[in-house]
Amino acid sequence: MKRILQLTFFILLASLSIGAIALDRTQVVDDPNHVSPLLIGQNAPEMTLFSSDGTPFSLRQKLAQKPTILLFYRGGWCPFCNAQLSQIQEIEEDIVAMDYQLLAISPDTPSALQKTSKDRKLGYELVSDYQLKATRQFGLAFHISDEYNQKVKSIGGKTARLAGDDKSTLPVPAVFILDTDGVVQFQYVNPNYKVRIKPELLLTAAKLALEDKEVEGK
Q1: By the 8 A CB rule, do 207 and 98 touch?
Q2: Residue 72 in this model has a pLDDT that exceeds 60
Q3: DSSP labels for 13-72?
Q4: What are the structural domains, with CATH classification, of the chain?
Q5: Can you give the residue ranges of the Thioredoxin domain (predicted)?
Q6: What is the per-residue pLDDT for 164?
């Protein structure tokens, strides 16, 4: 069943581009195809993140409350991300009915999250990773070129930088499903930011993840 859940383009890309290259998961790479995300069966790291009102919280403590669907997106300035956020909003009731909590993480500041939530009429929680802790610890961080950063700025976007780093960093868009122990049950990571997981596939993966846990508990 775990193999069924491992529906991710990253697996295909990894066999072609990463293969024999052992990457430090927290390393910020220069090519989104070379990220090394958390895999199924691995544990989410502990870190402090921020809610949209600026309140800090422990990620592991948050994950312990309920099974969690964790969505990483690039920022409220990204039209592909906004389209995905709206698609997820359409299936939020189904996600909640399965007793999941839904968290959407980006490098945006808390104030930027509030604007995105209001503009997109979102009912689920947006989380600020402006320090890029989650982006790095989940193995999704990559540098963008100065040219691309200028394009982001030209549409009103703002990217984040690590302390002492002269390049801006973005997360590869991703979805993780985690149990209350913080163990990854499913992941979808695609370096092509224009391609996102279909809502119906996410719902199927979420359902199968719960069924897997039920079987393991018997």
Answers
A1: yes
A2: yes
A3: HIIIIITT----TT--BSSGGG-----TTPBPPP-EEEETTS-EEEHHHHHTTS-EEEEE
A4: 2-217 (3.40.30.10)
A5: 38-211
A6: 83
Number of helices (H) and strands (E), helices first, in the chain?
Answer: 9, 9
φ, ψ for residue 193, nearest 5 deg = -65, -10
SS3 127: strand
Span 3-30, mean pLDDT?
A: 54
3-state secondary structure of 191: coil
- pTM, entire model: 0.87
Half-sphere exposure of 184 (CA within 13 A, CB side): 22
- Amino acid letter, 160: A
Average pLDDT, the chain: 89
Distance CA 51, CA 67 (A): 18
204 CB-side CA count, 13 A: 12
39-58 pLDDT tens trace: 999 999 999 999 999 999 99
Q: Is pLDDT at 20 greater than 50 in this prediction?
A: no
What letter does residue 91 receive in the DSSP assignment? T
* DSSP-derived secondary structure for 140-178: -EEE--HHHHHHHHHTT---B--TT-SS-EEEPPEEEEE
